[in-house]
Design brief:
Elements (H helix, E strand, L loop, with lengths): L4 H91 L1 H24 L2
Amino acid sequence: MSPTHTENLKSNLSEAGMHLKQAAIDAGDTVRGVASAAGDEVRLGKANLKADFADSAIAGLAAAEEAAEAGSEQVDVLLDRGRDLIDSAADLIRERPLASFGAAFAAGWIIAKLARSGGGDK
C-alpha cells in the first residue's frame, strides 16, 4: 500500500525539521568560526597598530635628536658669522681709526638725540 498524503506530509515535515536543525548547527558553527576569525584579525590588527605606533615613536625620537643636532649646527654657524663680523669690524677700525671714531661718535650722538626726544613726549 502506498503512503497516504498525511504520511507524506509528516515525512516531509520531519525531513524539513532535520534540515532546519542541521542549518541551525551549521549557522552556530559559522558564527563561532567567524567570531574566532574576527578575534584573530582583531589581535593581528592590534599587534600591527602597536608596531606602527612604536615605529612612529622611534622615528619621532630620531627626528627630535636630529633637530637638536641641527639647532646646534645653526648656533655654530651663527657664532662663526658673529666672529667674522667682529673680526671685520676690528680690521676696519685698525685700518681707519679716525673714520671709525667719527662714525661711533655720530651714532652715539644720534641715539642720544632720539632718547631725549622720545623721553620728552611721555
